[in-house]
Write a structure and sequence with these properties.
The chain is of the alpha/beta class. It is built from eleven helices and twelve strands. It has helices at residues 14-27, 40-47, 53-62, 81-88, 144-160, 178-190, 203-212, 224-238, 275-287, 291-306, 320-329; strands at residues 2-8, 31-36, 64-67, 93-99, 112-118, 128-132, 135-138, 165-170, 197-202, 219-222, 245-249, 254-258. It is globular, with a radius of gyration of 20 Å. The termini are close together. The structure holds 1,4-dihydronicotinamide adenine dinucleotide. Residues 13, 69-72, 82, 241-242, 257, 260-266, 272-273, 276, 313 line the site of 1,4-dihydronicotinamide adenine dinucleotide.
Length: 339
Amino acid sequence: MKHTITLIPGDGIGPEITAATVRVIEATGVDINWETQILGSQALEKYGETLPATAIDSMRSTKVALKGPIMTPVGKGFTSVNVGLRRALDLYANVRPVKALPNVECRYPELDLVIVRENTEGLYSGIEHVVVPGVVESLKVITEKASTRIARYAFEFARSSGRKKVTAVHKANIMKLSDGLFLECFNAVAKDYPDIEADDKIIDNCCMQLVMRPEQFDVLVMENLYGDILSDLCAGLIGGLGLAPGANIGELGAVFEAVHGSAPDIAGQGIANPTALMLSAIQMLRHIGENEAAQKFEAALLATFNDGIKTRDLGGDARTAEFANAIIDRIPSGATATV
Ligand code: NAI
């Protein structure tokens, strides 16, 4: 079956890691027609807007996108395209697996947990204003609808992936109304899943527990900002941002992207680690039903790590394209994954 998928190479290291990832996907034999789109500053230059209708329309019609990182200016300039995109397509669940890979030096080689981040509201609502000069307000929006929806997603995800426990992460001791509502919705949903253990942790304690005893966690569900921060913390536990994949899932579509950003400090040098995007692409292949291709990709990626081939961020010397070549070499030849 031929699939049509939106491809957003993105900024910084984005084009390098998406090119490497697309080459490996194609080597699995899966048949994809890529619709390439631009967002952010590139789109601003070409179309006069950062989130052009042509890109949104493409994603609405293909329902699946593989996306590189998009740069967001700090403290000024346009608002986050990533946040805007997730809201425009109502991609409410950001699923970020945290799993160590073989031969990667890290604090927790056995770690295997999943962060489920609410993707549409919280402090990322972007509602900010100047009250009087020198005083600004940023509004944190928490709704019963979105909190219940993400809690249910987390429990369903836990059940369907054979996981045993879901932990809600919050700060309801201080933000009694907003995080209080999030926790209340979580506890209400938990009652429908007696087969899954449910508990909760205050975010600051949770950070410490993640660093000291992360094996106690299985699935963690939280609002937007906490999810953003804890994802990077967890990436650090397994060897860094180059290894942390993600999927943004909604009722109408899904966008697969790495946790990391555009890494301007190493962009254009051909040394970025494409693993996080590749792991996201494997999630994507499973999402579109190409399980055999996903399996081939994953096995070849693991074999590459097992053979000690790594990019520079992990202490190796493989360049982005060489790393992709090593994976392709480990995909069984003559394989035509799908029909
Ligand atoms: P970053 O994630 O781009 O980089 C942080 C550090 O990790 C840098 O030292 C970088 O070199 C390294 N790193 C990240 N990914 C890597 C990879 N694949 N291989 C090797 N090293 C890697 O975070 P930063 O610098 O805070 O953000 C840069 C830009 O990315 C900002 O404009 C930010 O808004 C944007 N961003 C976009 C995201 C998205 O599109 N989903 C997510 C996070 C940030």
